[in-house]
Amino acid sequence: MSILVVAEHDHSTLKSATLHAVAACGKLGGDIHLLVAGHNARGAAEAPQLAGQLAENVAALIVNIAGPYSHIVLPATGFGKNIAPRVAASLDVAQVSDIMSVESPDTFIRPIYAGNAFATVQSKDAKKVITVRTTAFDAVVPEGGHAAIEDVAAPPGFEGIELLGQELTKSDRPELTSARIIISGGRGLQKGENFKMLEALADKLNAAIGASRAAVDAGFVPNDYQVGQTGKIVAPDLYIAVGISGAIQHLAGMKDSKVIVAINKDPEAPIFQIADYGLVGDLFEIVPALTAELSST
Amino acid sequence: MKVLIPVKRVVDFNVKVRVKPDGSGVDTANVKMSMNPFDEIAVEEAVRLKEKGIASELVAISCGVAACQETLRTALALGADRAILIETNAELQPLAVAKLLKAIVDKETPQLVILGKQAIDDDSNQTGQMLAALLGWPQATFASKVDIAGGKATVKREVDGGLETVAMVLPAVITTDLRLNEPRYATLPNIMKAKKKPLDVVKPDALGVDVAPRLATLKVVEPPKRKGGGKVADVKELVAKLRSEAKVIS
Ligand SMILES: Cc1cc2nc3c(=O)[nH]c(=O)nc-3n(C[C@H](O)[C@H](O)[C@H](O)COP(=O)(O)OP(=O)(O)OC[C@H]3O[C@@H](n4cnc5c(N)ncnc54)[C@H](O)[C@@H]3O)c2cc1C
Ligand SMILES: Nc1ncnc2c1ncn2[C@@H]1O[C@H](COP(=O)(O)O)[C@@H](O)[C@H]1O
Questions:
Q1: 3-state class of A74 per DSSP?
Q2: CB distance from A293 to chain B under 8 Å?
Q3: Is the pLDDT of residue A84 over 70?
Q4: CA nearest neighbour of A82 among B155, B9, B8, B105
Q5: Interface predicted TM-score of the whole assembly (ipTM), two decimals
Q6: Chain A residues 208-267 with CB within 8 Å of chain B
Q7: Which residue of B95, B216, B221 is in closest CB contact with A88?
Q8: Helix (H, G, I), strand (E, B) or coil at B240
Q9: How far is B28 from chain A (nearest CA, A)?
């Protein structure tokens, strides 16, 4: 049995999501092969048609080399979610999305209904195409580097699509999905400018900034800040929810955090039901006070 | 240009679902059902394309039990011109839905299929990409802006690091993200009008599609409950507890 993990990378470094996906494969057993599909990626991946990592091109490559593999594994990130189903359908197999646990090589646990139920599913297909919930598996340590590197030819680029450009959010902060501490703001912040308050606090804690859907929809912060059922799934050591009510769709993205702090002026807000430390009050007083307290002691 | 809009009937997003005591699944009896929210966004986008004169005909499709007719009537009330129900009581998984949709696409030859990015019940996030693969069409998932001109769709996509823009030659598949638009509500006159719009019913057999599930659900359980509800009086107590009790900050 051998497993193909599709690496998520930016053509120079691996994204941490890959290390979590590899960790899940450790539970499957068998040889693990890593596919780095890219361009100018340190001599390992040299296909210009893969520069944009379009699903059409990456999926075609995976399908080409899928033959010997029992499992094809991608992280359940924007990258993996875009590509994996295209691979599965091309191979005429089901995809198991967002696995949280490996019960056996064909049986997995995955969340449904925004994590309000956990389903144990068994795949009857000869090949399993899987995406891995990164927060559910501790990252493997990237060490060794003794694996043989083999070149594979990429199929010609798909004719009907072209990547025109990217507008990536620039930030010096840790990445949301790998940060140890996250401070998220919701509609209670009232406007984008007020996120500066959260940034001052984040500076003290070396934290990443996240947001609820309401804060993103209102334009306070970019879309890639959204935590939740249909945004990013996070599980930091500390999650501080500021002015977020705690809708199930938001909880779905953060309730596996180790410690949850909620700051909200409404004592009935559902976020308090899952918070370890709830602080009822006006965020516009509490957040600056918290930043000051961390500076003074 | 004809546009197809697959819409799924799901448990309403406001409902807190309950797992059945026998572990066989989630209790959907007597629970409010609605159109999948991402599909409302898909319908809205299609209706706007028609209002701009870019789309000429909008066909809503749902796969599932007879009650999916309600979901289709909603799509018709929002502006779809006609509807197709692929009726079955069988459990449908994304690969099966994608195959059913492909069979309809082969007949209807639309230039565009707009789906939701994710159904909020199974949370699979697969069907659109699978359909694109089966058709050999380009795909733009997680769309937050769509422009159609000159046989091309230019789509802004929400990706993990921000946004990216792709241009696709039609026909193509698009899946919607939350920021694409704000769906309208159906008005009473439009709900009345929708009752008279055509709604065809076909069976998977008639389309020659095998919908047998590939994944067996062995059991469904409640997630472990998180012990919460702890309160602190003020910022000083919070910081002290985060340091000494939770030990998550130094
Ligand atoms: C299909 C679908 C997908 C969704 N996906 C997601 C998702 O991935 N992530 C997500 O987050 N949501 C998602 N949602 C939206 C979700 O249902 C909620 O609408 C959203 O999470 C609410 O955001 P919020 O808590 O910021 O806003 P609100 O619910 O409006 O809460 C604001 C809170 O701020 C508090 N507040 C206001 N002023 C102050 C103050 N001065 N001091 C202290 N507290 C204050 C209020 O008491 C209130 O509790 C989704 C919804 C749908 C339908
Ligand atoms: N049974 C169905 N009938 C019609 N459309 C569906 C069905 N299942 C999924 N879809 C479409 O596929 C999208 C993604 O669903 P999923 O892959 O299940 O997360 C949905 O938003 C719908 O647009």
A1: strand
A2: yes
A3: yes
A4: B155
A5: 0.96
A6: 213, 216-217, 222-224, 226, 229-230, 232, 237-238, 248-249, 255, 258-261
A7: B95
A8: helix
A9: 12
B33, B36, B45, B207: which to mutate for ligand 2, most atoms within 8 A of CB? B36
d(CA A89, CA A283) in angstroms, rounded, equals: 48
How many whole angstroms separate alpha carbon B36 and alpha carbon A64? 34
- Lowest mean pLDDT: which of A172-176, A276-280, B169-173? A172-176
User: What tens digit of pLDDT does each residue of A134-165 get?
Assistant: 999 999 998 887 888 888 889 999 999 999 99
pLDDT for A43 equals: 59
What is the rounded distance in angstroms from the CA atom of residue A75 to the CA atom of residue A6? 8
pLDDT tops 70 at residue A42: no
Residue-wise pLDDT tens digits, A95-122: 999 999 999 999 999 999 999 999 999 9
Tell me the nearest-neighbour CA distance from B146 into chain A, angstroms. 14
- Assign residue A104 a region: left if phi > 0, alpha if psi is -120 to 50, beta otherwise? beta
Q: Are A150 and A43 in contact (CB under 8 A)?
A: no
Contact partners, residue A115, CB within 8 Å, separation at least 6: A229, A251, A252, A255, B223
Name the amino acid, one letter, at A240.
I
Q: Are A83 and A89 in contact (CB under 8 A)?
A: no
Which residue's entry shows tokens 């807000």?
Answer: A269
| DSSP conformation letters of A23-41 | HHHHTT-SEEEEE---SSB
The answer to whether the beta carbons of residues A50 and A39 sit under 8 Å apart is yes
Contacts of A273 in chain B (CB under 8 A): 228-229
What's the CA gap between B123 and A153, in Å, rounded? 34
**How buried is B58 (Cβ within 10 angstroms: 0-12 exposed, 13-18 middle, 19+ buried)?**
buried
Residue entry with tokens 């082969």 = B106
